[in-house]
Amino acid sequence: AQTVTQSQPEMSVQEAETVTLSCTYDTSESNYYLFWYKQPPSRQMILVIRQEAYKQQNATENRFSVNFQKAAKSFSLKISDSQLGDTAMYFCAFMKHNTGNQFYFGTGTSLTVIP
Amino acid sequence: NAGVTQTPKFRILKIGQSMTLQCTQDMNHNYMYWYRQDPGMGLKLIYYSVGAGITDKGEVPNGYNVSRSTTEDFPLRLELAAPSQTSVYFCASSYSVLGGSNQPQHFGDGTRLSIL
User: Fold this and answer.
1) Contacts of B45 in chain A (CB under 8 A)
2) pLDDT 10s digits, B92-103
């Protein structure tokens, strides 16, 4: 079974500063994907960034970037120039590439951006 | 496009009652999923389907049933509601191949279910 661990239940950051959210996972699979999702109070699940395990290059999406360490099974999210709208729950998710493409989610990190 | 539509958005049930959470998608996705999200936790997979007529259990299937008679619809049935099933339920859908699409899974807005 796949497990995803987010060891930081809550974090805060000053507006315009940088913050890093941690995620580790455990799997014996070699072909998989990793994602970060944002869930604001509206409960919507919003994809922030994705990483294919076979790609060595770390994914970036504007102010969001990841540090993917495959051997260490680590997948952290860096948010630069934090904005008030970044306040939300952030979930790390693992997807093994097979029939069904099941997702496994971490328990989440609640991020608060302080003005 | 409506995307993934879940009904109802809120519901209160009494212990032992039954109900069906509805989910429909208009993107012609083969794969559909049901998750539950307990307070302060991540989403856990209840059931999933890879096509009409095919369903399979996820991590937490006990107390639930599903069916997939059409590509569009994937209802979730609670037969004997229990307080432990108080949660927010999300339906999601996706293509079978994870290509360059930015959205690996499209999520509905969730159903908040309380069982008292």
Assistant:
1) 102-104
2) 998 877 765 556
